[in-house]
Design brief:
Blueprint: H1 13-25, H2 30-44, H3 58-69, H4 80-88
Length: 94
């Protein structure tokens, strides 16, 4: 058996619970899953998944929140013609 070293990780208890349950369904324990992550990182020469910043802004987040809550689904327009006219009108930049 190869020599092994201990690794201590600090993580949120709920995250650990959820990850443990997922890995258990896959037939893995946390130690084995962590080892797989490191092996994949070495094979990829980096993280084995894409890491990027969200390009969404506050307006987009607000629109997503409104859509989930059903707010403003019918828009500020009284008719399709009014909506289409607004789309055809160039907006002045502030």
């Amino acid at each position: 058996m190869a020599n092994k070293e201990n690794l201590t990780l600090r993580m949120d208890p709920e995250l650990k619970k959820q990850a443990s349950e997922l890995f258990q369904e896959l037939g893995l324990d946390l130690s084995t899953a962590t080892g797989i992550f490191y092996r994949q990182a070495l094979q990829c020469h980096g993280l084995p998944f894409e890491v990027k910043l969200s390009k969404l802004n506050a307006t987009t987040y607000q629109a997503m929140d409104d859509a989930e809550k059903g707010n403003g689904l019918y828009g500020p327009y009284d008719s399709v013609d009014a909506c289409m006219s607004s789309l055809d009108t160039p907006k002045k930049r502030k």
